[in-house]
């Protein structure tokens, strides 16, 4: 039995680094609701600059940021076009219906992309029977592990502009997408009006995400954040970790991608495992295993007994996620554990 757990459930499980803990301990703070927390102000200014937007605001989570964006862009009863398997639809508890009160028009996707002609055709024209289309949402990197290219981002943005619509980017793993595409994050966010990105997914900050956009948009969002219970007072302690996440941890994400690729290659050598190569762009390895629906609880227990935390199957697939706290040696141990399970 090894000492300590390897956690492959998600990159949300990353712990703060020692540098983050030190920065949090020493952080200068004020009351962020009054706007006088110097560390938070520094983080928001730096985050906005990083993605080429006028302003940014700290939010407690990625779901909070996405829902705040919908709540700010849209009025109740309007319609939002987005992918049917995107995070906003699949994993945000139906919040769009509860908070923004909008209707979601969910389109099929392929590797994270909606069909461009279908997007254009889905935009509502003026009619007494129709809700107004107000927003298009895209996701990059996609939650299925794939990254969409800049040409697609540009094309969606162009369609939106032609119909006077806004585009929101769910960029929870924006910097993973940038690392894969070998571009700066702002080259992706050039093609959206607002963007949410996480500080805690793979970047090791303990809490928080950023929502960025125009100054007018963020000013409006700041009041709505308060309405949603997101005024966090002395939040500079969290912002201090966020600064290190953005300045340092974004630069090493390619290591996680390399470990994921290595994990995929080693798993493929095992009989009965089929890796989703089409979505192996970032730090996620999706794969199928014979009879996985019946074996899901058993494999979770087997891995737990060997000090590895994994999630059970979802939609007939397992997902292993690499991150800062998963080394290449850990990957070897994971594969060895899978071999022992298959025996």
TrEMBL record:
<dbReference type="Pfam" id="PF01212">
    <property type="entry name" value="Beta_elim_lyase"/>
</dbReference>
<dbReference type="InterPro" id="IPR015424">
    <property type="entry name" value="PyrdxlP-dep_Trfase"/>
</dbReference>
<dbReference type="InterPro" id="IPR001597">
    <property type="entry name" value="ArAA_b-elim_lyase/Thr_aldolase"/>
</dbReference>
<dbReference type="InterPro" id="IPR015422">
    <property type="entry name" value="PyrdxlP-dep_Trfase_small"/>
</dbReference>
<dbReference type="GO" id="GO:0008732">
    <property type="term" value="F:L-allo-threonine aldolase activity"/>
</dbReference>
<dbReference type="InterPro" id="IPR015421">
    <property type="entry name" value="PyrdxlP-dep_Trfase_major"/>
</dbReference>
<feature type="modified residue" description="N6-(pyridoxal phosphate)lysine">
    <location>
        <position position="201"/>
    </location>
</feature>
<dbReference type="GO" id="GO:0005829">
    <property type="term" value="C:cytosol"/>
</dbReference>
<feature type="domain" description="Aromatic amino acid beta-eliminating lyase/threonine aldolase">
    <location>
        <begin position="7"/>
        <end position="287"/>
    </location>
</feature>
<dbReference type="InterPro" id="IPR023603">
    <property type="entry name" value="Low_specificity_L-TA-like"/>
</dbReference>
<protein>
    <submittedName>
        <fullName>Low-specificity L-threonine aldolase</fullName>
    </submittedName>
</protein>
<dbReference type="GO" id="GO:0006545">
    <property type="term" value="P:glycine biosynthetic process"/>
</dbReference>
<comment type="similarity">
    <text>Belongs to the threonine aldolase family.</text>
</comment>
<keyword id="KW-0456">Lyase</keyword>
<keyword id="KW-0663">Pyridoxal phosphate</keyword>
<dbReference type="GO" id="GO:0006567">
    <property type="term" value="P:L-threonine catabolic process"/>
</dbReference>
């Amino acid at each position: 039995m090894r000492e300590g757990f390897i956690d492959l459930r998600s990159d949300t499980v990353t712990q703060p680094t020692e540098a983050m803990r030190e920065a949090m301990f020493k952080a200068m703070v004020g009351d962020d609701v009054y706007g006088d927390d110097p560390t938070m102000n520094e983080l928001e200014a730096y985050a906005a600059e990083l993605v080429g937007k006028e302003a940014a605001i700290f939010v407690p989570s990625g779901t909070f940021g996405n829902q705040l964006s919908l709540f700010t862009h849209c009025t109740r009863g309007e319609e939002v076009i987005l992918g049917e398997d995107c995070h906003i639809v699949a994993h945000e508890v139906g919040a769009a219906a509860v908070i923004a009160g909008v209707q979601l028009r969910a389109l099929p996707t392929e590797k994270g992309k909606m069909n461009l002609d279908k997007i254009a055709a889905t935009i509502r024209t003026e009619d007494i029977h129709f809700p107004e289309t107000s927003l298009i949402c895209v996701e990059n990197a996609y939650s299925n592990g794939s990254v969409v290219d800049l040409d697609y981002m540009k094309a969606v943005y162009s369609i939106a502009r032609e119909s006077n619509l806004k585009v929101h980017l769910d960029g929870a793993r924006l910097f993973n997408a940038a690392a894969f595409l070998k571009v700066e994050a702002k080259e992706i966010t050039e093609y959206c009006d607002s963007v949410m990105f996480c500080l805690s997914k793979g970047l090791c900050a303990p809490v928080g995400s950023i929502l960025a956009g125009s100054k007018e948009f963020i000013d409006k969002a700041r009041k709505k954040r308060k309405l949603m219970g997101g005024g966090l007072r002395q939040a500079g302690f969290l912002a201090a970790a966020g600064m290190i996440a953005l300045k340092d941890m974004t630069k090493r994400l390619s290591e996680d991608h390399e470990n994921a690729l290595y994990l995929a290659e080693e798993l493929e050598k095992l009989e009965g495992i089929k890796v989703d190569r089409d979505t192996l762009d970032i730090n996620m390895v999706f794969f199928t295993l014979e009879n996985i629906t019946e074996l899901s609880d058993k494999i979770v227990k087997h891995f737990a007994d060997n000090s590895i935390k994994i999630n059970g199957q979802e939609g007939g697939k397992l997902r292993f996620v690499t991150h800062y706290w998963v080394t290449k040696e850990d990957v070897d141990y994971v594969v060895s554990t899978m071999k022992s399970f298959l025996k």
